[in-house]
Design goal:
The complex is a heterodimer. Chain A is 28% helix and 21% strand. Chain A has 26 helices and 41 strands. In chain A, strands 4-3-2-28-41 form a five-stranded parallel beta sheet, with helices on one face. In chain A, helix 2 links the parallel strand 3 and strand 4. The longest helix of chain B is centred in the last third of the chain and has 19 residues. Chain B has ten helices and no strands. The relative contact order of chain B is 0.10. The chains are: A alpha/beta, B mainly alpha.
């Protein structure tokens, strides 16, 4: 979801309409900041664009600079605040360039501003929201060593000083739930043992945590990303646990909070009707639910057997809705929908369901001993005395069929056979129910279809069936069953239960509205509005027979529509589902051990036989917490909205859209920085497999006072002080075979600096640097190298490291190297090995080059026009380069290039001024 | 710098004492030797070097680069490479060591420098038709017939005769 905004870009001096005397700096590292300050100080407006949530770049991550060993943050922080306070600098963080057109003096740049879900003008960076956030993810700023929350500032001096919500979009579980239950949210809360808060998240979407926790078909589990790795999270059982947990503990009494006047009628007290009434009551509307049966609950009560859904659970959850101020009038038949509107109800929600059993349409369906599933289940659930024959056959493969079969078994049938015309793959019932039925002794006769009911003296004696095979897929996507000729056979049965679907009552109330040929109501699929204004529809009467959770979802959506209808708002606005759904590739599943999902404890088979007590016993607290722990947290932020409650300035908005900003600038400076080589491409060094092999950037964070160990140089595996440290140089630089033939220029010096810092932290430790050449060019560099060797006693061994292995004792690392000065082959034991990776062009530079119509060098860096005479000019007039975007540089060189690029850019900008 | 000049000068400042490195470079797949920067990655990666102190691939390359022609050709070191190519896999300068050693062996063989053990092996094959004649028993015959193979191995001798005729005698005829 994006909105467009015209940036407050003033065209140069106001006289020319084409040229602009503003500048755009791409990249908020130290070079980009220098360029921005230099241009801004000459009186030109500057936009500083940064991809991450804070400016500062890599320098903010570094502990000390070389060769002076100054504190990096101490130098950088004044710069950060200078940039943020400069009246001529406009900061655009968390933004990326989408397109660039135009030419020097007249660039049109379109910027995509990612939503940080926090209003920058309101947030003061106080950080009150951070401790309440339940989501923890590896902290990228700390080289993924420590953890940060989903709402975060990367480092204490982050500029702008506002928090950012790390949210990739909508997780699969939530996107697939018809009732939009925030599964990632409540599962995350459960990981922390906050079961009450988790339940509150479920109740935002449904009044039935206990009911749906037992009978939901769980679309969420089918799409759960964890299922791509091993098995999906047991989301349904987890939210059942929440309801069980609340029952087992003290429940806070519910208070009615009805503050609105407009009365609303709901027809049908099934899951859809109750859900709608519940959501409306939450909004404060007085609701009356009309139900023609004796009790509320609809199909939940009259169709689903008690061993799946104990009635006290249903009663309690309906009572909770009544306690909220909803009136439920049972035993009341509504004569006419229009009457309700005339009686003063402002809106009506119709959810009368689909209660008519479909007929098989074969000969003999009217004989004694043939019943239809809905009637059968309704009689059983009403407590009527129902007897079944010895040999029962159930026709159909849906939940009603499975329920009927299991009920028949409980009523004493000796042999129950389920006849279904397709195979076990297409069977639409909940898989765990199918398994339970099998365990309870229900026989499955698949790929079979009854063709005739045989009877004697008006009572069923048997059925004739035909074998089927699967043909081409039909409109439902399932393979169509085709009868096999001459495969008929006869079965002897005493009773037959037909469960081949339901339909709506063809003479029902809904016929007052515009209906389809199937007797279901025609309505808008999003707003659920019918052809009569003020009447909304949902549940089975709208879709035909469907799942409980769909009906609950309809109730929720209809409640939103009714609220909008009463307030006179547009029903449709902003309701189209256009949130980005988190894709599989966006979820990092590496390094996660494969685990099976928690199994549901069940009642023993013996005790189930003649008993209607609940089969599934529910999770205990430990099992629920352990199962919740398996959640991958696909979207990062779980939208529990605890931060919204914690924020005193009302700055957090979880629905904030992304923005598109259009800029008009005269010159562009590219200061896009660099990325470090991925050292996992050298499997012989064991990075990512051997825990005490770390990269130089991780080492920087490890020795930094603001880092994950508060500046204590320890091994992360055991917290011990490393007595022997090895530095491996030239990894991902000067390697022809890895496509990085050039020298990265800075690794030798930062490697030596890190070795010196290791000695500073632990003077007694052995510190060895393995190198091929030491390139200590430049002022003070050779002296620094000498100082490292002589004053600090760092060992330098000339020889590239071939392998890093785990020692026989697991806590030691073995570095294999030839000391080329003596020709001896060594296996050196170290406690910690630090790999110094080379520098590479940043990600995304290629796309930017395409936008600017610019060529990159073979290595992927920006090509400068003339390396000697115009070292900051690119081949595109008006576009300049600074920092590491055109090749590896150290900090002083990057800053110099920043100033140089600023000067080259202002030459263009000042010409625009002169044309005034 | 011409190589004749180098030859005449005494070996000072590690200037190559012969143009042996250039000679190797001219051989098929012998190029790449000049790319070596003597970082030691090969020796540290080498399986043979981890077993014996005699064999150090980096030092052998160094000797070639330094022009120690006679020393390299007469030694058995170029013949010890197993051609596992782990050094080539890891070499950051893309030096193809096992190919270089192969090129050196080609030169050595042309000039008659073949270690005795390799001569013995080849002679044994030419003599018996195969390497393990002493190990031949009727069990082998049984195994072969079980596998549906011809139990008689005399065709080996025919084969070797053909090879001798085509390559050895044929060459001498020309």
């Amino acid at each position: 979801m994006t909105t467009e905004r015209q940036h407050k870009s003033k065209v140069g001096g106001g006289t020319t309409e084409i040229m602009s005397n503003e500048a755009l700096i791409v990249g908020g590292g130290v070079a980009g900041m220098q360029a921005a300050i230099d241009i801004a100080n000459q009186g030109f407006k500057v936009t500083l664009l940064e991809k991450s949530s804070s400016i500062g770049g890599v320098m903010a991550q570094i502990d000390k600079t070389f060769p002076t060993l100054d504190c990096s943050a101490c130098i950088l922080t004044p710069r950060l605040s200078e940039v943020s306070r400069h009246p001529n600098i406009d900061l655009l963080t968390y933004s990326e360039i989408k397109s660039v057109t135009g030419e020097t003096g007249d660039f049109r740049v379109r910027v995509h501003r990612h939503s940080r879900y926090v209003d920058e003008s309101k947030c003061s960076g106080c950080g009150d929201c951070i401790p309440v956030c339940p989501v923890e993810v590896p902290n990228r700023f700390d080289g993924n060593l420590g953890f940060r929350k989903a709402i975060y500032t990367p480092f204490p001096q982050a500029t702008p000083n506002v928090v950012t919500v790390d949210k990739k979009g909508e997780p699969a579980c939530r996107a697939t739930c018809p009732a939009e239950v925030n599964a990632q949210g409540f599962v995350t809360m459960m990981r922390h043992g906050k079961f009450d808060e988790a339940l509150e998240i479920v109740r935002r979407s449904t009044p039935f945590p206990g009911v749906l926790g037992r009978v939901c078909i769980s679309f969420c589990e089918a799409e759960c990303e964890r299922g791509m790795l091993d098995e999906s999270i047991s989301i349904r059982n987890l939210h059942r646990f929440l309801a069980d947990y609340e029952r087992a503990h003290e429940v806070a009494p519910v208070e009615a909070n009805i503050d609105k006047k407009e009365r609303i009628a709901v027809v049908g007290a099934g899951p859809g009707g109750i859900s709608c009434a519940y959501q409306l009551a939450r909004m404060g509307y007085p609701v009356t639910v009309f139900e023609k049966r004796e009790k509320a609950g609809g199909m939940l009560r009259y169709s689903i057997p008690e061993y799946r859904l104990p009635r006290e659970i249903l009663d309690e959850e309906i009572q909770r809705v009544v306690d909220m101020g909803v009136k439920i009038k049972t035993g009341t038949t509504v004569k006419s929908l229009h009457d309700l509107l005339e009686k003063g109800f402002k809106a009506v929600f119709v959810a009368t369901g689909a209660w008519e059993s479909n007929r098989l349409g074969i000969a003999g369906e009217e004989v004694d001993g043939v019943v239809h599933a809905i009637k059968f289940l309704e009689d059983v659930n009403n407590g009527e005395k129902v007897t079944v024959g010895d040999r029962v056959v159930v026709v159909g493969g849906g939940d009603a069929a499975i329920d009927s079969a299991r009920v028949a078994r409980r009523l004493g049938a000796k042999e129950v056979t389920l006849v279904y015309r397709r195979s076990h793959v297409e069977i639409p019932a909940i898989p765990s129910e199918v398994e339970d039925a099998k365990a309870e002794g229900v026989k499955f006769m698949l790929l079979t279809n009854p063709v005739e009911i045989l009877s004697s003296k008006g009572h069923i004696t048997g059925i004739r069936c035909v074998r089927m095979r699967l043909g081409e897929p039909d409109h439902s996507g399932r393979r169509r069953p085709v009868p096999i000729p001459n495969s008929e056979f006869t079965m002897a049965v005493d009773e037959m239960i037909i469960a081949v679907g339901q339909s709506t009552d063809p003479r029902g109330l809904q016929t007052e509205l515009e209906c389809t040929e199937w007797g279901t109501v025609k309505a808008d699929p999003v707003t659920l509005a019918t052809n009569v204004p003020g009447i909304f529809v949902g549940g089975d009467v709208f879709t035909g027979p469907n799942t409980v959770v769909k009906a609950v979802g309809h109730g929720k959506h209809a409640a939103t529509s009714i609220d909008r209808y009463i307030r006179g708002l547009d029903l449709m606005e902003g309701r189209a589902k256009d949130r980005h759904r988190v894709q599989s590739y966006e979820v990092d599943k590496s390094n996660i051990p494969v685990e099976a999902r928690a199994s549901m404890p069940k009642q023993g088979l013996e005790s189930r036989k003649r008993d209607f007590s609940e089969v599934e016993l529910g999770f205990n607290e430990a099992r629920a917490a352990a199962e919740a722990e398996r959640c991958l947290g696909c979207a990062v932020c779980c939208e529990c909205e605890r931060c919204v409650d914690a924020c005193t300035r009302d700055a957090i908005d979880h629905h904030m859209p992304d923005e598109v900003v259009d800029l008009h600038v005269g010159a562009i400076v590219l200061a896009t920085g660099y990325k470090l080589f991925d050292v996992a491409k050298y499997p012989q060094y064991g990075y990512g497999k051997i825990p005490n092999v770390i990269t130089a950037m991780e080492f920087e964070r490890l020795i930094n006072a603001a880092g994950p160990t508060h500046g204590h140089l320890i091994r992360l595996t055991d917290g011990k002080i490393p007595n022997s440290i090895g530095f491996v140089q030239c990894v991902g630089a000067r390697d022809v075979q890895k496509g990085v033939p050039f020298c990265s220029r800075v690794c030798c010096m930062y490697g030596i600096k890190n070795a010196v810092m290791a000695k500073e932290h632990h003077p007694d430790a052995d510190v060895t640097v393995y190198y091929a050449d030491i390139r200590a060019f430049g002022k003070g560099f050779e002296e620094f190298y000498e100082m490292a060797r002589t004053r600090f006693g760092v060992n330098f061994v000339r020889g590239r490291v071939a392998e890093v292995m785990e020692g026989k004792k697991k806590n030691k690392l073995i570095v294999r190297v030839e000391d080329t000065e003596t020709g001896d082959l060594h296996d050196v034991a170290h406690d910690l090995v630090i790999i110094s990776p080379g520098i590479q062009p940043p990600e995304g530079l290629e796309d930017l080059a395409v936008e600017l119509n610019m060529d990159l060098s073979e290595e992927g860096y920006v090509q400068v026009h003339d390396a000697v005479l115009t070292p900051v000019d690119t081949d595109v007039p008006g576009v300049f380069v600074a920092g590491c975007a055109d090749g590896p540089k150290d900090i002083p060189d990057s800053v110099s290039a920043g100033s140089a690029a600023a000067m080259r850019a202002t030459i263009i900008l000042s010409k625009v001024d002169r044309e005034e | 710098m011409s190589h004749d000049e180098v030859k005449q000068q005494p070996p000072i400042n590690h200037a190559p004492s012969s143009n042996f490195a250039k000679e190797v470079e001219q051989e098929f797949y012998g190029d790449g030797i000049m790319k070596c920067i003597q970082c030691g990655m090969c020796t540290a990666s080498c399986m043979v070097a981890s077993m014996t102190e005699r064999y150090r691939p980096r030092m052998l390359i160094q000797k070639i680069l330094l022009g120690k022609r006679e020393e390299v050709l007469s030694s058995e070191l170029p013949w010890l490479c197993m051609t596992c190519r782990l050094c080539e896999e890891r070499c950051q300068e893309d030096v193809n060591l096992s190919e270089i050693f192969h090129a050196v062996r080609e030169i050595a063989a042309r000039e008659g420098y073949i270690p005795q053990v390799f001569r013995n092996t080849i002679n044994k094959v030419l003599e018996d038709g195969w390497l393990l004649n002493d190990a031949y028993t009727d069990f082998v015959e049984d195994d072969r017939s079980d596998l549906g193979l011809d139990p008689k191995l005399s065709w080996n001798n025919d084969f070797v005769k053909k090879i001798k005729k085509r390559y050895f005698e044929g060459v001498t005829k020309k």
